[in-house]
Write a structure and sequence with these properties.
The complex is a heterodimer of chains A (about 350) and B (about 425). By secondary structure, chain A is an all-alpha fold. Chain A contains 14 helices and no strands. Chain A starts with a helix and ends in a 13-residue tail after the last helix. The chains are: A mainly alpha (about 350), B alpha+beta (about 425).
Amino acid sequence: MRHTLAILALLGACDAPEESPNAPRAEVVQALAEQVAQGHYDEFALRAEALHRAATTLCASPDADTFAAAQAGWWAAKAPWVRAEVIQFGPVVEYPERLGPKLDDWPVSADAVEALISSDAPLDVASFGLMGSATRGLPVVEYLLWPAEEDALATLLATPRRCEALVGASGDVALSAERLATVWREDWSARVGRPSPEDGDAYDTVQDALDEWVNRMAFTAENIRGTKLGAPVGDKTGGEPQLDLLQSRPSGRSLTDARDALAGVHDVWTGGAGDGALGVSDLLRDDPTLSAQVDALFEACDARLLELPEPLEDTILLQPELVARAQDALLALQVAVQVDLAQRLSVTITFNDNDGD
Amino acid sequence: MLAPLRAALSAPVDPAGLVVFRVGFGLLAAFSALRFLALGWVEALYITPTTHFPWLPGLSVPSPTALYGLFVAQIVAGLGVAWGRAPKLWLVVWLLCFGFVELLDKSLYLNHYVLFTLMGLWMLLLPLGRLRLHGGVALPAWGLWLMRAQVATVYLWAGVAKLNADWFLRGEPLKTWLEARAGLPLVGPLLAADATALAMSWAGAAYDLSAPWLLLHPRTRPLGVVLVLGFHSAVGLLFPIGVFPALMILCSTLLWSPSWPRRWWGVWTPPSLTAPPLPWPQTAALFVMITLLTLFPGRGLLRGEDVAWTERGHRLAWRVMLIEKTGLVVYRVVEPKTGRVWRVSPAEGLTALQHKQLRTQPDLIRDYAIQLKAQHAAEGRDVVVTADAWASLNGRPAQRLLRADLNLTQPLRALDEAGWILPRQTP
């Protein structure tokens, strides 16, 4: 026993931590909050405002060009929003803001939107801000810009209230996006980026915040595989396609949504493209094998998604095997993140909010 | 030759230590059940889940009212055991309620709940109601040694399970767990150092293997007590393991002198009459029982495989704090007749805790496959269920845990013969 204690004492004495080539976890967590998340939200706010301007212009002088510009505005605004899908924490889901459903309560309720247009309820931006999630957000704007009817512009202009609703809904999206960027900058950026036990928040330590990011990486890969691809291809229905479950189906953006969501996960991995960007991969500088493996899996996923012909609904019907290949690649990425990366970084894997749906 | 042993087994022992243990046991049992109610765990663990993994086929979760009743009964029974009037009756009530609840879901298995149950069972064999600090009867020595054998078994098998390369050479899984606490002020960098994990691993194994002897021997007992208090307090602070530290500290008192409470409660007067030797049948039964309780936990060694990886023989074996495992499972359900395929994530039908347990434990993965088959059978489909399952153990790279080509709903014997659990690849 005396010898054991002596050995332990000796071990304790020479217990100086070695210099690690990895970036400090605190710096990575801070960079993810202040650069990656803030970057996406700022970009989303800018593009949502541009969408609102385009919608306003369209309704003021409707023609094919302004209509195409409004559609392009919606398409562009969707990119940073979907790229930020990996950030399923903070003001997107937490009260009092809980901006996620206000911005993107999918699938759209066509009946609710048509009822609103048919009513005499006010349709200005402020009124949309008081509505429930069924009649506001990006899916409502998509529904108005890509109606089921063949002549989309004529449908939009069929009644003045339709265009009025487009301007109001897009303005509401712009306000919510601006609110999201502001709340993240002024509150959540510090709560997630510089966690402290004193503030009584969900993240007491840097490890808590890192756990969140790595969990979200895995869950987002899972959601792309299971929700964006798997559900419409019929994973839950024995292979019977469920095209109604395609996200962004009216606009034909389903596949781009999937790629943007994957790009968002990749941003967390690399820290994005900015100077001095820090991401989760910077915590693995001492493990180039795993780091290279994850890089390769991201590339494989990207390649598999790129090989899917547009539109995704046709591919689901005609070449479901290609969708399955993309799903397999995403599953391999999820294994690397949820199993390898989580073990390597001492991350506790929790629960995907989409589980149990 | 065995006559002296039989006489020694029936020798009278001061019941004071056991009386204090009974009181502590009852209070802890009541506290544990109260904690379940107060923290909403009855709802979260038993009522909310739509799927369970019962230990016995056909066992199902009762109505919420009955469940809450079972926990309230545990509180009352626990207090009854502590109180000391008809303690065996209360103990039976507690054992039935607690044991039934434990059998409801394998995914909620905890070693210390099994220890709790066994200690309660062994106490039933003692003249519990007549053991008092003053008056009453003496505790027969066999009773004390039965309880001691159980406690020592826990420590020793916990120690033996740590005699492996992961624990001794890689400092795993402590290294992984302590790295997650690197952000703690002051001690964080120290906790994250490899040497700290190694030192704590070695100390942990040495502690487990030596604790019973240190506590039994009067000269080393003070050191043993300090170590027990220090170790379990530290573990309780670092890791969320509920009432385990309190239970182990309480159990360790059985290894002290049985008269230890006399320091505060006066001297014990041994009975004047010598107890008759323990009859042969009881002696034989006692030896069978002690042999079983001491050897059964080692059954996993018989397979010659890494129990931490396969988890065959992991439960009911006192293998504590040995595994950091993460995993991922996706089921593939195929209807051969039509060729239809379903991909199922188990998380869709399980709670977070159940899913966490399932994704690394082969028997739970198989149990859920059988449940999926039953769900499809209820809709008139005959399906084959396979699983893509990966896992990583103690920091190793992920690898497949199960063969992906086997129908997991086959009988277990057929799966075993087919080698359904793949061997660990990385040394």
